[in-house]
C-alpha cells in the first residue's frame, strides 16, 4: 500500500483550506504597511468621540466605541457598535445604532440596546477580587451595569424583518472577562422600516438566568414574525457559532466549542463553508456549519490578536480584510478567486490618527473590521462595505468597489463636475473624517479641515510611470492657517517629492531637509500646477500659473527640484491637509491611559479645492492598462542570447530589439507559456525584416539576398502577410514606409516585380484600415492599387477566372499544377476577389462611388465564378481547374496562349488553397460549402501531427515530389497555415452554417473552436528547432523537421503571420470600420482560465482585452472584458462574443 510522505499530505491539506500564496507582506514600521491601495476605496468616519463636548452626534461623549456590525436592508445601511464611557470592559455599556441611505451620510447615533442592571446577588464562581483591578470610583455603580459584547449583530429573516442582536455580559473588574460564559444572555430587537424600534427580547440565557430574573421577556412572547425570525436563528448553526464566546462553556447549541474568537464565514462555490477566527485560524464545514474540520492557522496569513473578515463578493470572488501584522495597522485586503487561495495583499486604510482618549485594552489603529454577513443584504451598488473602529474610539466605514481592482488601468483625466456624489469617484481613494470632510462642489473636490488631530486625504492611483506629466488646479480659501501637501508616491507609498501650500501663504517644494519657495499664493485664487517627474534623473520640473477668470495664465513661475527620495515609478498622487504621521511606532507601548491635551478642541478651518487633475505617462512603453511591459523582457533577452546576430541588415538590430518592442508591440499574457513565448518571438523576428532603404522603410521575406527578388531584396508573395502582421505595430510609420516603398519606391513608381507573384496587398491594406482607421494612408495609394489590379488582366481565362503558374503563386511543385501550367487556382482568384472588395471599400469610404461600383462588380463576378467554376461537388472542396486537354497542349507549346476555360477539368486534389475563399469571406453561407472544413479536421485530409498539410494526405501523389526543392505537395508551410487559420477564424465568426461532425455516427456539427485552437497549438509547437524557437520555410508534417535544414536562407523566414492570429483568432478582436468593438475568442471552454491582450492600438485608442475566469489573475473583475484607454467598455461573465457599440464616442 502506498503511503504519501507527511509533508505531501500536509501540503495537500493546506491547499484545501484558506491560505495565502502571495509574496507581498506588510511593513509594520509604516502605518500603511508599505502596501499599495486597491482602487477607489472610500474611508468615511461616522462617529467621532468627544468627551469634552458631549452631544447626540458623538454618542453622548462616551469615548470607547468599538465592534461595529453592518447590514443592508430596506434600501439602507444599518450599523451598530459598542459604546462605553471610556474603556473596554468598564461599565456602563450600551449599543448604539446609525443608519444611512448612501453609506456616506449617517444618522446621529441612537441607543439600540441600553444599559442593563446586573442583579445585586450576581456572583462568578472562583472569582477572586483584586484591589488593583477594581473600577475607578467614577465607574463604580450600584447596581453594577452589564458589559455589552457581541460577535454578531444583525439578522434578516426569511420573512423580511430586521433583527438586531446583542449580548449582556458581566465584568467584575477591569481585567475580568465579560465573555467567559458567565454573563446574562443574548437579546434581539426588531428594527422597523419606519425607523422605530420594537421591544427587546432574550433569545438566549446564560446559566443562572431565565425569563423570571431578567428585565426583558423571552422571544416566545414576541410577535409571530419576530418569533419566526428567532427560530430561524436558533436553527442556523452558522449563526449560533458566532455565540461561542459569550455562551455557557460547553453549550450544546454551539456547533464547535473550540474557544476561538470572532468567528465569520462564507460559502465556497461547491457549498462548503469556509470559516475564520482571530489569528487567521481557519476551518471548513461540509455540512452547513454543524461540524468543522480541524482548525489551523491559515498558512501564509499574518494576523495577530485582531479580527479578520472574509466575504464572498457580488462578482463571485472573495476578499479577506484584516490587519496583516502583529499590530492593528494597516488595514489590508487580500483577494481570492476560489475562496481558498489568496494571492494579493493591498491597502484599505493606512491611517493611524492620534488616540485622544486612552484606557483599558484600547489599541491603536483601524481594527475590528466587519462587513455584511451572507443573508443580511446586498447594497444596491453591489460593492463591498465594511465597518471598523479607529483606536477603539471612532467608528468608520469603508466602501470598496467591486470588482476590487489592485491596479489603476487609466491615467487621470478628471472633471469633478461630471460627478453627482462622492460615491461616484470610483478611481479616487478617500479618507474623510467628520471634522476634515471631503466633498464635491461643482467642478471642485473640496478638502475641509478643522480637526486638530486628523486630516482629509485623497489619492488618485494611476498606471505606474517612470516619466510622468501631471497637472491640476488648486484653490486655498485662506493663507494663514492650514497646509495642503501634494505628494507623488510609488507602489510602496514612498513619496519622491512634495509640493506644499503652507500656513505662511507660500507654495514651496520639499528638497530633502529644506524647502524651496516657488511663489506666494492668495486666498480663493486658482493656481494651475504643471509638473513633469523623471524618476531616472530624480527630477521635478514644476510650473505654477496664476489663472484668470477665463482660465488663462496671468503669470507663471517655474522651478526644477531634485527628488528627496528615489523611486523607480510613480503610481499615486496624494492631496493631504496635514503632515504625514509616524506615531505610533512599533516600539510605542501598547497601553496608554491618558488623554491628549485639547482632545475636544476644534481647529481653525482650512479649506482647499482641487480640480482638473490629469496625468499622462511619457514612458516609451506607455499604453498598457493591466500588463507590465517589463514582465516580458526576459523573452527578448533569451532570443538575443540564442545565437550571434550573423545577418544584420535590420533597421532595428538585436541590441535595440527590446526598446523597439516595448514601444510598438501589443502585450500578450496567457497560461500556455509556449504560446506566449512564440508571440514575442514572432515580433522579435518580424522586426529583423524591417530595413532602412534609400526610399524609406521596407520589409523583406529573406534576410539572405535572393536573385529573383526586387530592389532591396523585396518579394511580393508574402506582403499580404506582412501587412496583416504589421498593422498591429503601434507606430504606423513602419507600415506606411513599407507600403510607400512598394508603390512609390522605384523612382516614384511601384516596384518592378510587384506583380511577379500573386498577392493580396490591396485586400490587406483595407484590413489595415480596419485597425488604425486612418484613411489618409490608403487614399494616397488608391490610384496605384487600381493600376496594380489592372496589371493582372493578362492572367485571365476568357470566362473571367484568373490563372497562375503554381510557382508564381509562391507554391511550386504542387500536385495540381506545374511551373508552366495556366491553371485557374482558388488562390489567385480569392486574392483578386479580396483585392477588388478592398479597393471598393476604400473607394466607398472616401466617396469615390464610381470606382467603388466598378470594383464591387468585379468582386461579384469573381464570387460567382469561384462558387460555380472552382467548386468540385464530388470532393466538396474548392479546387484547381485545368484547361481542357486541347488548350493545355496549346499552353505547353505557346506561353502567350490564353485558355478560354471552356470544359475545364478539376485537378481532383484537395489542396490547402481550397480554404482561401474564406480568407476573404467569399463563399455563400451554405451547407455545401461549409462541408469543406471537415477536411481540416480529418487525418486523411489536412490534419497532421505538426499542422495543416498543403495537400490532402490521402492523395496518391502526397509528398511525391522529393525534398528540399520547396515542394507544395503536402509538406507544411507556415505561409499556408497562416492563411488557413485566418480563413478558419473568418468562417467561425462570420458564418452561421457549420460542417457536420467528422464521424458519420456523430450528431451535431464539427467543433470548430477546438479545431482552431488545436491547430494553433500545433503551429506553436512546430516553430522550434533543437529546443529553441525557430521559423523557417517548410517542415515535415509528421516529424516537425524543417526541410531546409540549417540553410541560412530559411532562418527567420518572414512568410506567414502568427501574432495576427493570436490577436484576431485566439483573443478574437475582429477589426471593423465603425465605432464598434467586436471580440469573440476562439478558445474552447475550460482550456484557459485567463488571457490578456494589452496595449493594442486600435482606431487611435489603446485597447485591452482580457479574460479572467475567477478574477484572481488581473484583479479588475471576472469574465471577458474590453477596456478602452484604461476604462471598462464592455464585459460578459463567460467566453463568447462581446460587442461594444459606440466604443469611441
Automatic annotation (TrEMBL):
It comes from the Bacteria. The keyword Cytoplasm does not apply. It holds the Pfam family Beta-prop_BT_1020. Keywords: Glycosidase, Hydrolase. Residues 1073-1127 form the Glycoside hydrolase family 65 C-terminal domain. Residues 711-1056 form the Mannosylglycerate hydrolase MGH1-like glycoside hydrolase domain. GO terms for molecular function: hydrolase activity, acting on glycosyl bonds. Residues 428-592 form the BT-1020-like structural beta-sandwich domain. InterPro entries: Beta-prop_BT_1020, BT_1020-like_b-sandwich_1, Glyco_hydro_65_C, MGH1-like_GH. Residues 16-259 form the BT-1020-like N-terminal beta-propeller domain. Signal peptide: none annotated. This is Six-hairpin glycosidase. It comes from Segatella copri.
Amino acid at each position: 500500500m502506498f503511503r504519501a510522505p507527511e509533508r505531501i499530505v500536509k501540503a495537500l491539506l493546506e491547499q484545501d483550506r484558506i491560505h495565502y500564496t502571495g509574496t507581498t507582506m506588510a511593513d509594520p514600521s509604516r502605518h500603511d504597511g508599505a502596501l499599495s491601495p486597491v482602487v477607489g476605496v472610500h474611508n468615511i468616519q461616522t462617529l467621532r468621540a468627544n468627551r469634552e463636548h458631549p452631544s447626540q452626534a458623538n454618542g453622548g461623549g462616551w469615548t470607547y466605541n468599538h465592534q461595529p456590525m453592518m447590514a443592508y436592508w430596506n434600501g439602507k445601511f444599518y450599523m451598530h457598535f459598542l459604546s462605553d464611557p471610556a474603556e473596554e470592559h468598564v461599565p456602563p455599556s450600551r449599543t448604539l445604532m446609525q443608519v444611512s441611505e448612501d453609506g456616506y451620510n449617517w444618522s446621529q447615533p441612537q441607543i439600540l440596546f441600553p444599559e442593563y442592571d446586573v442583579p445585586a446577588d450576581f456572583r462568578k464562581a472562583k472569582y477572586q477580587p483584586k484591589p488593583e483591578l477594581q473600577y475607578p470610583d467614577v465607574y463604580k455603580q450600584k447596581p453594577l451595569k452589564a458589559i455589552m459584547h457581541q460577535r454578531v449583530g444583525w439578522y434578516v429573516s426569511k420573512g423580511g424583518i430586521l433583527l438586531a442582536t446583542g449580548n449582556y455580559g458581566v465584568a467584575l473588574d477591569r481585567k475580568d472577562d465579560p465573555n467567559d460564559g458567565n454573563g446574562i444572555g443574548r437579546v434581539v430587537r426588531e428594527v422597523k422600516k419606519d425607523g422605530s424600534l420594537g421591544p427587546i427580547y432574550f433569545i438566549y440565557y446564560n446559566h443562572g438566568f431565565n425569563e423570571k430574573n431578567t428585565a426583558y421577556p423571552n422571544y416566545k412572547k414576541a410577535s409571530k414574525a419576530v418569533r419566526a425570525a428567532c427560530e430561524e436563528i436558533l436553527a442556523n448553526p452558522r449563526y449560533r457559532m458566532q455565540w461561542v464566546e459569550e455562551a455557557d462553556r460547553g453549550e450544546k447549541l454551539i456547533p464547535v466549542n473550540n474557544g476561538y474568537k470572532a468567528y465569520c464565514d462564507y460559502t465556497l462555490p461547491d457549498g462548503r463553508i469556509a470559516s475564520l477566527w482571530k489569528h487567521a485560524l481557519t476551518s471548513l464545514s461540509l455540512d452547513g456549519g454543524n461540524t468543522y474540520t480541524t482548525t489551523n492557522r491559515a498558512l501564509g496569513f499574518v494576523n495577530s490578536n485582531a479580527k479578520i473578515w472574509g466575504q464572498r463578493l457580488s462578482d463571485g470572488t472573495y476578499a479577506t480584510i484584516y490587519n496583516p501584522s502583529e499590530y492593528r495597522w494597516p488595514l489590508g485586503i487580500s483577494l481570492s478567486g476560489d475562496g481558498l487561495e489568496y494571492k494579493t495583499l493591498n491597502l484599505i486604510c493606512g491611517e493611524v490618527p492620534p488616540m485622544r482618549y486612552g484606557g483599558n485594552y484600547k489599541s491603536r489603529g483601524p481594527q475590528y473590521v466587519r462587513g455584511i454577513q451572507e443573508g443580511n443584504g446586498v447594497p444596491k451598488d453591489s460593492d463591498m462595505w465594511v465597518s471598523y473602529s479607529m483606536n477603539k474610539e471612532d467608528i468608520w466605514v469603508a466602501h470598496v468597489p467591486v470588482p476590487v481592482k489592485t491596479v489603476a488601468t487609466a491615467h487621470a483625466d478628471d472633471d469633478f463636475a461630471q460627478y453627482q456624489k462622492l460615491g461616484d469617484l470610483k478611481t479616487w481613494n478617500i479618507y474623510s473624517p467628520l471634522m476634515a470632510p471631503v466633498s464635491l462642489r461643482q467642478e471642485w473636490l473640496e478638502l475641509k479641515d478643522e480637526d486638530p488631530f486628523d486630516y482629509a486625504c485623497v489619492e488618485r492611483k494611476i498606471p505606474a510611470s517612470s516619466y510622468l506629466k501631471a497637472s491640476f488646479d488648486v484653490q486655498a480659501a485662506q493663507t494663514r492657517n492650514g497646509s495642503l501637501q501634494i505628494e507623488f508616491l510609488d507602489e510602496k507609498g514612498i513619496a519622491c517629492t512634495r509640493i506644499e501650500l503652507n500656513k505662511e501663504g507660500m507654495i514651496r517644494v520639499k528638497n530633502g531637509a529644506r524647502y524651496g519657495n516657488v511663489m506666494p499664493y492668495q486666498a480663493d485664487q486658482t493656481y494651475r500646477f504643471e509638473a513633469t517627474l523623471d524618476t531616472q534623473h530624480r527630477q521635478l520640473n514644476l510650473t505654477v500659473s496664476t489663472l484668470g477668470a477665463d482660465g488663462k495664465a496671468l503669470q507663471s513661475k517655474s522651478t526644477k527640484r531634485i527628488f528627496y527620495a528615489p523611486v523607480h515609478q510613480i503610481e499615486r498622487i496624494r492631496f493631504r491637509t496635514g503632515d504625514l504621521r509616524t506615531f505610533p511606532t512599533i516600539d510605542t507601548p501598547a497601553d496608554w491611559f491618558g488623554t491628549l491635551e485639547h482632545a475636544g478642541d476644534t481647529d481653525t478651518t482650512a479649506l482647499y479645492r482641487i480640480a482638473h487633475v490629469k496625468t499622462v505617462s511619457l514612458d516609451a512603453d506607455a499604453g498598457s492598462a493591466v500588463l507590465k511591459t517589463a514582465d516580458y523582457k526576459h523573452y527578448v533577452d533569451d532570443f538575443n542570447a540564442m545565437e550571434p546576430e550573423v545577418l544584420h541588415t535590420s533597421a532595428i538590430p538585436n541590441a535595440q530589439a527590446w526598446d523597439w518592442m516595448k514601444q510598438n508591440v501589443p502585450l500578450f499574457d496567457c497560461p500556455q507559456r509556449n504560446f506566449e513565448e512564440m508571440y514575442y518571438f514572432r515580433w522579435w523576428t518580424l522586426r529583423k525584416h524591417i530595413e532602412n532603404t534609400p526610399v524609406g522603410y521596407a520589409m523583406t521575406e529573406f534576410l539572405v539576398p535572393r536573385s529573383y527578388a526586387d530592389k532591396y531584396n523585396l518579394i511580393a508573395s508574402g506582403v499580404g502577410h506582412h501587412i496583416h502582421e504589421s498593422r498591429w505595430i503601434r507606430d504606423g510609420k513602419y507600415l506606411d514606409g513599407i507600403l510607400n516603398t512598394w508603390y512609390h519606391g522605384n523612382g516614384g513608381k511601384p516596384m518592378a516585380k510587384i506583380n511577379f507573384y500573386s498577392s493580396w496587398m490591396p485586400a490587406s491594406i483595407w484590413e489595415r484600415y480596419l485597425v488604425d482607421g486612418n484613411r489618409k494612408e490608403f487614399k494616397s495609394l488608391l490610384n496605384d492599387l487600381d493600376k496594380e489590379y489592372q496589371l493582372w488582366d493578362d492572367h485571365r481565362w476568357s470566362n473571367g477566372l484568373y490563372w497562375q503558374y503554381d510557382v508564381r503563386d509562391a507554391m511550386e511543385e504542387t500536385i495540381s499544377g506545374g511551373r508552366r501550367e495556366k491553371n485557374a487556382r482558388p488562390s489567385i482568384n480569392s486574392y483578386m476577389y479580396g483585392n477588388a472588395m478592398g479597393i471598393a471599400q476604400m473607394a466607398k469610404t472616401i466617396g469615390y462611388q464610381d470606382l467603388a461600383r466598378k470594383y464591387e462588380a468585379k468582386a461579384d463576378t469573381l464570387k460567382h465564378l469561384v462558387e460555380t467554376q472552382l467548386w468540385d461537388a464530388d470532393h466538396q472542396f474548392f479546387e484547381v481547374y485545368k484547361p481542357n486537354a486541347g488548350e493545355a497542349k496549346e499552353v505547353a507549346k505557346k506561353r502567350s496562349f490564353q485558355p478560354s476555360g471552356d470544359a475545364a477539368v478539376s485537378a481532383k486534389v484537395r489542396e490547402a488553397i481550397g480554404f482561401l475563399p474564406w480568407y476573404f469571406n467569399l463563399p455563400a453561407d451554405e451547407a455545401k460549402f461549409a462541408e469543406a472544413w471537415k477536411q481540416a479536421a480529418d487525418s486523411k485530409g489536412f490534419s497532421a501531427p505538426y499542422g495543416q498539410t498543403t495537400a490532402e494526405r490521402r492523395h496518391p501523389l502526397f509528398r511525391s515530389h522529393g525534398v528540399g526543392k520547396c515542394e507544395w505537395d503536402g509538406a507544411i508551410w507556415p505561409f499556408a497555415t497562416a492563411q488557413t487559420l485566418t480563413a478558419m477564424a473568418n468562417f467561425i465568426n462570420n458564418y452561421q452554417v457549420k460542417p457536420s461532425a467528422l464521424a458519420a455516427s456523430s450528431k451535431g456539427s464539427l467543433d470548430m473552436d477546438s479545431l482552431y485552437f488545436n491547430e494553433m497549438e500545433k503551429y506553436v509547437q512546430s516553430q522550434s528547432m533543437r529546443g529553441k524557437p525557430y521559423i523557417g520555410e517548410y517542415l515535415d508534417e509528421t516529424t516537425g523537421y524543417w526541410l531546409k535544414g540549417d540553410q541560412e536562407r530559411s532562418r527567420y523566414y518572414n512568410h506567414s503571420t502568427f501574432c495576427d492570429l493570436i490577436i484576431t483568432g485566439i483573443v478574437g478582436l475582429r477589426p471593423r470600420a465603425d465605432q464598434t468593438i467586436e471580440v469573440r475568442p476562439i478558445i474552447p471552454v475550460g482550456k484557459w482560465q485567463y488571457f490578456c491582450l494589452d496595449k493594442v492600438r486600435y482606431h487611435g485608442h489603446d485597447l485591452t482585452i482580457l479574460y479572467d475566469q475567477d478574477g484572481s489573475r488581473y484583479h479588475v473583475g471576472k469574465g471577458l472584458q474590453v477596456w478602452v484607454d484604461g476604462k471598462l467598455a464592455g464585459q460578459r461573465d463567460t467566453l463568447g462574443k462581446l460587442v461594444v457599440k459606440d466604443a469611441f464616442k
